[in-house]
Structures are given as C-alpha cells and as structure tokens.
C-alpha cells in the first residue's frame, strides 16, 4: 500500500499564517477531537500563496518529519477520530434501513455500500497525495483536491472553472453538516419526548388500563414543541466559538454514547425474531430510502483528509483507515441486523425509540445518547459556520462584526430547527440528507476526481469502468433517493395508507408468532 501512494511534502507553517488543528498544543486527545474539523476550513487560506512561494519555503524533509513528530496525532488518535467521525445518529437508524431493503438484501447491500465508501476514501487520499506533488502544496483538503483535479484534468471547460470544484464541495459540506444538525434536532426531540411521556405514563399509572391511556393521551405534547424548547439551548451552545472550551463535554459525550450502545446491544440480543418471519427482499420503492440512510451513516469522508494531513506517520493512514472503517462496518451491520431481527416491522427511525419506556435503564440510554448528540451538534455546526460566517462578517464594519456573527450563528441554528419542524420524521430527514449530499461527497466526486487526476498516467480500462460504475451508483442513489423521500414528505397520506396495509399483514404474522410461542 505504501508504494502505491505518492509521497507528498510534509506540512510547514510560516510565521503569521493561520494554523489548523495540526499545530494546536496537544493538551489531550479530547482537545484534538474538538479540532478535527478545522482543516476543512483552513485549507482555503493558502489560496493566496503562489506555488513558487510554497516551494521556496519548504523545509528539508528531515525537519518536516521532526515537526510532524512533535505536533501530529498518533495512530491510535487517528483511529479514534475515524470511529467518532462515522458513528452518530445514522447508526441508530440502520435497523429501519434494513426493513426498507429486506433481511437478506439489506445486510448485503450495507456491506457493498461500506466497501465502496471506504474505497472512495482511499481514492481521495491518493489523489490528494498526487496533486500535492504536482502543485507543490504541503497538504490539500477535500475542496482543494477537487479544484486542482479539475485544473489538471483533460477538459478545457473544467480547467477554466476549476474554482467551481471548491464551491461545489463547500456547498455540499454545508448542506451535509446542517443536515446532520437537523437530524440531531429531530433525534433530541423524539427521545426526550418519549422519556418525558414515559415518566408521566408511569407516574399516573393505575389498575384501570383504559383510564391510564386516556390520561396519557391528554398529556401528549406535539413533537415540534420539544424542538422549539431545544432551540434556545442550541443557540447558546453554538455561541461558544472556541471548541476547545467544550473538550470536557465532548469526552463525556463520547463516553455516554459508548455506554448507550453497550446497553442497546445487551437488549436487542434477547428475544430475536425468527428471520424466516421477515421479508427477505422489499419492493424497489422502499430501497432508495435504505440507500439514503445507509450512505448517511458513512458520514466520515469529510474528516478523512484532515486526519491524514495531521498524522505523524502518514504512511500508516491506509492501515488506520482500514481498521477504523472495518470496526465501523462491523458495528453497523451487527446493530442494523440484530435491531431489525429484535423489533421486526415495529422498528422506528431510531432504535432507541423502541426501548422500553417503563424501565429506567433503557430510559437512561435515551438521555445519555441525547446528551452526546447535543454536544456533537456544536462540532457538526462548526464547518458550515466557518464557511458562511466570514463571508457575511467581511461586509460589515469592525465594531459590528461580533454582533453580526452571533446573529448569523443564531439564524443558522434556527434554519436547522425549521427543517426539523417542517420534516418531523427522523427516518425521512436522514434519508433525504444522505441521498442529496452524502451520496455526492462519498460516492460521486471521488471516482471522478481519480479520473481527472490520473488520466495522463494511462489509466486501465478496469479503473475507468470501476470509477464510472461507482459514480453512476451515486447518481442513481441521489436521484431515486431524493425523489422517493420528497414524495413521502409531500404525500404522507399515501405513505400512511401503504403502512396501514402493511400493518395488517404484520399483525397477522405477530398473531401467528404468539400462537406458535404458546
């Protein structure tokens, strides 16, 4: 693997130049974790420096690696960042994705999408290395890699509009990250609503079941109210502009989410339904929803290049990427399959919503995971904020810059909350974000970048065919996933009717199952 990747010059920072997360003082792994997103933004600051100036300012190779050893991140830290960058709400929505594909075709498709996604991550790093050598750059992020690939590509139209590549990636990064934030708002509202109403239901429980149900229905509050209740707290959270201030909370969030996953696994491995009772393959109309959720889950391609750029020994990054994504895929496939086997057709947009409401241990899972997602909101929010806010504040006077920035931060949070209020279904928000933006960043752009970067090196027909095949899968997933998701959002009545039809057969199957147990 080492010999296949071109060696790029190691990073060197000049005095007075704004620095990325790689040169922050290493006060601990949690602080590095908070800084992992910064290179996505700071990579753009080198645009005003000529290639000749970069070439003249390079240090000898030995000094480069000495700097890396002092300031870079280790193999284990890189592995941890890869795990956190890919494990979020998408993981909890995968059991429903399996339902939309089938108990057989779902896990197989999940493995297929995972392998392609990891391969595209390797493509992106390889292209970045090659373009670093050609353009004499110390390091490149995602947007610059796409831009320079268009610049060196064979088409004159692309060469003249190479800067569009950077804008395209930045646009989809903004859509993706704000989409993640919208998903987090729905997730928080649904889980807190269930915990709150479960508490009220248990508190008012009586021997008369019908009376309990009546009392509980009166106390039920609209999901959108919970979203609006979170809004001021999210705004206050994003007003913390220095992410290092959230280092301790981030560490606690990681621990709480890890504990939650252990408890979830402990619950779903019990009372698993016979796989023969579940459909092996579901109709094609539901499959695009599976695709959107699955590609949403592999959400870490945006942090691949920042992590690789910050490693002490970049030659070990392919190994870290393979190990990290192997763990992620194992976690995804196991939780998705076991979760669907445990709950069957009753599975919800997040598997946490299927946990019992009358047992404090499982209620605590929802609280712990919600805390982790609440803190993670600020990290996902960082990228779109740093792309959009400077463009706005640069047009106002210095004395108004701080006020303007706070207003923009609040408006961006409100926009994520507005999307959540308009689409208050967790599964649809996840599928829509995955189909629109995640498919573009994870599947469509990397293979096209490989063709543009290496076209002069006599690419084999197999490589060209493979890249076109992956890009076509991404485009088809983009179009069909977006269409089906938008249709379900606009015409929920048809969806309810279809679900009602499905629920009849599901009830019959459940009745037969109970009789069989008896």
Can you put this structure into words, describing what you see?
By secondary structure, this protein is mainly α. Helices cover 72% and strands 0% of the residues. α9 runs antiparallel to α11, α11 runs antiparallel to α20 and α15 packs across α21. It starts with 28 loop residues before the first helix and ends with a helix. The C terminus is likely disordered.
* Helix content class: over 70%
- What is the CA-based Rg, rounded? 24 Å
Structural class: mainly alpha
Give the ordered list of helices and strands.
Answer: HHHHHHHHHHHHHHHHHHHHHH
Number of helices: 22
Strand tally is 0
Biggest β-sheet strands, sense, barrel:
none
Overall 3D shape = globular
Unreliable stretches: 10-35, 38-70, 211-218, 494-518
User: What is the mean predicted local confidence, pLDDT?
Assistant: 80
Distance between the termini: 57 Å
Task: Tell me the strand percentage band.
Answer: under 5%
